[in-house]
């Protein structure tokens, strides 16, 4: 369980995290999304006490991380691919971590086998591929068998097989009742892995919701419709208050009415419907729409002029 | 590498309950962790060996040279000859090797990113820092003492060909040998502290070199009366008195001088601690 409250982190002139609050609850995979520079890594570093918050607090399992004397038993963290001395073997890296937290030596061999690095455990980590380095970082996070886990971009550098492995791993840990926070740029990956989504942009919370809710809210309820008499239907829909645009292939894209209402208008006009399809935005599209105003590269556009979605958290818990 | 795509990861086979270790237990665990870190990297082990090789090698070289030229030495040279100091003169070079190792023991945490793993496992930064200093100081002292003693014994063996050797039981010689080892410990801790302060290998190493060597040279350019007041407090001048059999006049006493050198190391270590605790890792 991680509780983040009004967290702010300032580096010089840059406000990397701005009044961020959310929970990472047991039994669920919480996906942590945001464009580059949105503050995901900073938030995760603050969770494990590497960065001191400018304001606000983070509690792990009910207390401050810095108060824990064996924190690897409470939270496992994969922060960056490389937090390993290139001249040290994977085994020695995990061994020093284990010793510092009173974890028995046999557990090192256990996690090495679990991540598939047992055959290269004695090799210098500097010789590892990106994917192997990532697996070593995951092994370090699993070392203390902690009830809470955070992973910053865990599938970076992994092959498809490795990606499936990480997804399975995260889901099964959540199924065991652990709290799992995972950040990623890969929206499609999040749709398959996460139960909940926390979306941030420019350090601020944009959404704290479920995956389905996120897509539903972001897609804005568009309906595609084809019928025997498009022009009559069109005027009928406009009269009912909808905004209608015609697609190149002649179908009508209706905004402002849900599909049952569109069907009702058609029935009243006695127009035969050929197709009536509610449009679901993909997670990718939803994400792009929501964060369009908070991408760092657009920072020159000024502050406070974003779309409403950038300002109001969607489905925020509080 | 075999990929494990199998479904459920096995939960850890019954780790002992985590509990909350006391500060003492935590320190003991960290001593073990810091020891593992120090000996599991080839470059640290190599640097420790290099310290011994340089210390012994140069001691033997100067001892051999003195022996070879002894018959040509003048009366004054013979009178001022320091057999113990000659055999351990490799300390001058060894200080740079072990000083650099002190830097690396800390700066490598930052340059390799290991500090993030280290502090995630031990958020009590001072506990980590103090145990690191403790482990490193002990290792540094043992390696230094063995190197200096070996250099002394091998050097005396060479000098004995001209019957100009001395022994550990001769007055002051044991102090020279142990003092030289402590001198090396002080320089290595100075390096460690500077590395914690700068978080940068090159910056810390060049500062060690600057403090230990360049300052002493620069002092030669001061007016004579200033120089007399200032030079004796410089790190090298203060620290090396203890392993000189006939130190130059006007320097500090052997233990006072060594204390001053440890004082410099302590200042660097404390400054490093402040930065470690206050700055984001």
Q: In words, what does this structure look like?
A:
The complex is a heterodimer of chains A (318) and B (281). Chain A contains 11 helices and 13 strands. Chain A is of the alpha/beta class and 318 residues long. In chain A, the strands form 3 sheets. A 6-stranded mixed β-sheet of chain A has the order 5-6-7-3-8-9, sandwiched between helices. In chain A, a hairpin with a 2-residue loop joins strand 8 and strand 9. Helices cover 73% and strands 0% of the residues of chain B. Chain B is mostly helical and 281 residues long. Chain B is globular and about 75 Å long. The chains are: A alpha/beta (318), B mainly alpha (281). At the A-B interface, helix 2, helix 3, helix 4 and helix 5 of A face helix 1 and helix 6 of B.
Largest sheet strand order of chain A: 5-6-7-3-8-9
Q: Mean of the pLDDT scores of chain B?
A: 93
Per DSSP E runs of 2 or more residues, the count of β-strands of chain A stands at 13
Class based on secondary structure composition and strand pairing of chain B: mainly alpha
The string of secondary-structure elements of chain A, in order, is EEEHEEHHHEHEHEEHEHEEHEHH
Spatial separation of the terminal alpha carbons of chain A:
17 Å
Low-confidence stretches of chain B: 1-8
Gross morphology of chain B is: globular
Question: How much β-strand is present in the residues of chain B?
Answer: under 5%
Sheet with the most strands, sense and barrel status of chain B: none
**Strand residues, percent of chain A:** 25-35%
Name the largest protein-protein interface in this structure.
A-B, 63 and 48 residues
Rg value of chain A? 24 Å
Instruction: Work out the helix count of chain A.
Output: 11
